[in-house]
Structures
1.
Amino acid sequence: MADPGIRDYDYLVTGGAGFIGSHLCERLLSSGASVMVLDDLSTGSMSNLVNCVSNRSFGFTEGSVCNEGLVSDIAAMCRSVIHLAAAVGVENIIRQPVETIEVNVRGTENVLRAAGRKRMRTFIASTSEVYGKGEAVPFSEEGDLVFGPTSRSRWSYACSKTIDEFLALAYSKDRGLPVTIGRLFNTVGPRQTGRYGMVLPRFIAQAAAGRPITVYGDGRQTRCFSLVDEVVSCIIALLATDRSIGLAVNIGSTQEISILDLAATVKARTGSVSEIRIVPYDEAYPKDFEDMQRRVPDVRRLKELTGMAPCAGIEEIIDRILASGIPQA
Ligand code: UDP
């Protein structure tokens, strides 16, 4: 679907048909940039791109980041790359451990190799998962990463994204690649599906249907939720400054909420009659699962580099999601 007239796109967005990617593409196009998406549509969907496909500055290629030749060919047509393609959601990661590791490691390797050839401005999406089960909140980019044993498959995700970061930084140091790593904390908003286990779209879908809102564990674990529009602004702002080159940067809100309070807030905001049901971890996840208790970013580096950080409150976020329709779950 690439416009044959365009050979030179401003951005390659891998995973552009996903939840965050599609919001990013819309924003880039609305700023007048041209965008080529590479996505295998495994968890992303063309329906996320309805607002992009008719734009003549938009191109789409269906394919995997694991296909080295394809990544190289597509990257050759673009000036910079935003690499978002990765395994999505805790459920998928536990169910498909081989694919998770392969797509995260090989995909990023292919993107960095292709970007390295032209020294393209590059953004690699990493995740707050890399902090593992560290307890030193707020998590700072220079803090230690703490993982569990290899027998627990959840940590393979954290480790594979950590390898991505090491590789990106090695390309920056050794090959002069102008690369920035963004560690995305829990990002939410319109179009996010609950199908891969993400808590907020699941809760909203459950509340809207009058089904029990399923809180795992004791519900005292906390997360900080960021509105996708703000996360997109941060990614673009980080790419716009050379001062972010060679750095990993947290991208997230610092407003912490327990999952139990999140359930109550969703229930109140939707006017739902749903019960809030506590589900023990061993019923919710396979036996070897370990959850993180707290996950709060230190956003000093992000603010210092961009002058911004996500700050929308959870009620505003829920209202924005509701205004765009009930999420799939
Ligand atoms: N969670 C929950 N009910 C659900 C789905 C998730 O209580 O139906 C919990 C989950 O155990 C975790 C938190 O919500 O403590 C956030 O889960 P999510 O998968 O959205 O993100 P992550 O664990 O990667 O931060």
2.
Amino acid sequence: MSLKSKIDAQRLPEHIAIIMDGNGRWAKEKGKFRIFGHQNGVKSVREATEAAAELGVKYLTLYAFSTENWNRPQLEVIALMELLVSTIRKETNTLMKNNIRLQAIGNMDDLPPKCFKELKAAIDETQNNTRMTLVLALSYSAKWDITNAVKSIAHKVKEGKLLPSDITDQTIDEHLSTNGIPNPALMIRTSGEHRISNFLLWELAYSEFYFTDTLWPDFNKEHLYEAILNFQQRERRFGKTSEQLAI
Ligand code: FPP
């Protein structure tokens, strides 16, 4: 029996978030430059996106570039930005054909203008697609996002538009760049690292975590099926007891 056919379509995670890690190590193992790993990582982005859409997952968020990644060697940063631009340009048609909407979270002001322009064009072109939303986290960090949310809320309080006593966790949801996107049910990190690394700190509060040793460029559809099957074997209690869930 194939892994895919074992997946219960009624209990799919509505939103899967992935920390794509291990590109550099994958390249090093092969005696190549780090960018070779990133280039091969694009193939895995395609595999994960296709597999998620085929199954009926509604949101897939990929951590493509963190705020901290700007501190990498300049050549790697430039090469990564080039790769992003060319991939977005190349894949927009495929996103249209497959009815996939592209969104982005992160500090878009930091992106090189060419990268921003290409990204914005793809977001605009795919905005009415309905099958699945692919969210790219670009120049993103959760602490940056939460800090911005706090600033916007503080402004509203200062202007008398909001009372401090009216601030709820929903108020915070609404001021994050993930506003409108359901929280991830499943978070996957590749390459054997067991960290969140400033990714969706608020939104992952009740997510199931799945870690695999597979390096991102080796990640394929079967790996995604494995992660979803593992997720489906877990009981999500959201702070309740098993008995309460059975009622
Ligand atoms: C982490 O591996 C990977 C990244 C920082 C970049 C991910 C980018 C891609 C897969 C390319 C394009 C993506 C899209 C969405 C078009 P690492 O460099 O940290 O690896 P290491 O931990 O082995 O050094």
